[in-house]
């Protein structure tokens, strides 16, 4: 069974509810995953917008997620779960910041990307930023799953 990422509040390719965008309540949507591959020692998750005018924009990076987890509750980033590490996103915050594309720029596709890793932790300081976290995670990736939501202003 392949690694699969889902959310009870977001269907693949559908509009992200306003509750989960930066102009709304700015809550991170709850996520669930199944099909954890053998050898997984941790997970990393990023939320990115490849449609941003200046290139891919990172909205969130959570890493060192324990291998026994099968999901994240709504707004896990605000609970400050001590088992997790949060990298600085492109807004400059070590948390989730939801979609906020430029008005009139058309629909943006937000990729929630989960990587199963072959190491128990990534030894990178959070100040490195989400993009650097994802680059390092890809070196240790066993398998990846993604969920894409759409939003426009």
TrEMBL record:
GO molecular function: protein kinase inhibitor activity
Top-level taxonomic group: Bacteria
Secreted in keyword set: no
InterPro entries named among the record's database cross-references: PEBP, PEBP-like_sf, YbhB_YbcL/LppC-like
Keywords tagged on the record: Protein kinase inhibitor
Name of the molecule in the record: YbhB/YbcL family Raf kinase inhibitor-like protein
């Amino acid at each position: 069974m392949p690694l699969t990422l889902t959310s009870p509040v977001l269907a693949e390719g559908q509009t992200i509810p306003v509750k989960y965008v930066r102009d709304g309540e700015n809550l991170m949507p709850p996520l669930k995953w199944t099909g954890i591959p053998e050898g997984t020692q941790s997970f990393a998750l990023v939320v990115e917008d490849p449609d941003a005018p200046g290139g891919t924009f990172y909205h969130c990076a959570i890493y060192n997620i324990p291998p026994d987890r099968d999901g994240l509750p709504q707004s896990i980033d605000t609970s400050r779960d001590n088992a997790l590490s949060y990298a600085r996103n492109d807004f400059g915050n070590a948390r989730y910041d939801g979609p906020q594309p430029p008005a009139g720029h058309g629909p943006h596709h937000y990729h929630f990307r989960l990587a199963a890793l072959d190491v128990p932790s990534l030894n990178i300081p959070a100040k490195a930023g989400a993009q650097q976290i994802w680059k390092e995670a890809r070196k240790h990736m066993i398998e990846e799953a993604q969920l894409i939501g759409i939003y426009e202003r």
